[in-house]
Amino acid sequence: MSYFVLNQDARFANAVRPLGVMDAVRPEMMSPDHAHQLAAVNLHFKVAEATKVDYVDFIEHPVPFVSDRLKRVLEKFTPDTQFFAGAFTDLKRKHQEVYWLAVPPQIECLSEESEFGLDGSLRRLVIDDTRTGGSMFLQVGGLRERILLIHLALAEGLLRRDFNGIRLTRVR
Fold it and tell me: Which residue range forms the structural domain that includes residue 96?
C-alpha cells in the first residue's frame, strides 16, 4: 500500500488564516478519544486581515480544517473520521465560509526504520503498511508532531478533482 503525507500547499501565500484557534481547541482534543469535546466548542473564528484571502480546501495549522467540498469526499472514503463544523468570518469583507475540523483515527504505524532527532522530533518518516489497517485517512500515532496520511486511492480521488491548497508527499 502507498501513503502520502497531506500538507497545506505553501504556494498559496494568501491562504486563509483563522485566528484564536488554539484558545478554543486544546491539543488533546485532536485525538479521536477526546474529540467528542469539540462538539461543545465554538469553532467560529475571525480570519487574519489581508489584501487578498484564498479560501483553500485544506488548512494544516494550527489544526486541520477542510473545506465543505473536501469533507464530502473524505467522508466517502473515511467514515471513521470525525468532523466538527466551524466558520471563518472575514469581517472586513463581510464574508463567511464553512470549514470542518477533521479528526481522523490515530494509528500507531511507525516503522522501526523511522528516524528521530535528539529532541524526539521526527527526522524521517517510514510507516509500516501492515499496521495501518488499510485506513484511507489517518493521523500517525506515537509522534509529537501531527502528521496526516492518506492512502493512494484517496490521493488519486483528490487529484482528479479541482482542490486547491493541498500538497501530497509520498511516504517510504
Answer: 3-170
CA distance to 51, 54, 111, 130, per residue, from 13 (Å):
11, 8, 34, 37
β 166-170/82-90 pair status: unpaired
Q: 82-125 pLDDT, tens per residue?
A: 999 999 999 989 999 999 999 999 999 999 998 998 888 899 99
Global confidence as pTM: 0.92
Q: Which amino acid is it at 52?
A: K
Q: Which is nearest to 73 in space by CA: 16, 156, 171?
A: 156
Q: Please list the ranges in the chain whose pLDDT falls under 50.
A: none
Per the structure, the count of domains in the chain is 1
Radius of gyration of the chain (CA): 16
- Whether omega for the bond prior to residue 79 falls within 30 degrees of 0, making it cis, is no
Question: With 0-12 CB in 10 A as exposed, 13-18 as middle and 19+ as buried, what is 4?
Answer: buried
Phi, psi of 2 (to 5 degrees): -115, 140
The pLDDT of residue 144: 87
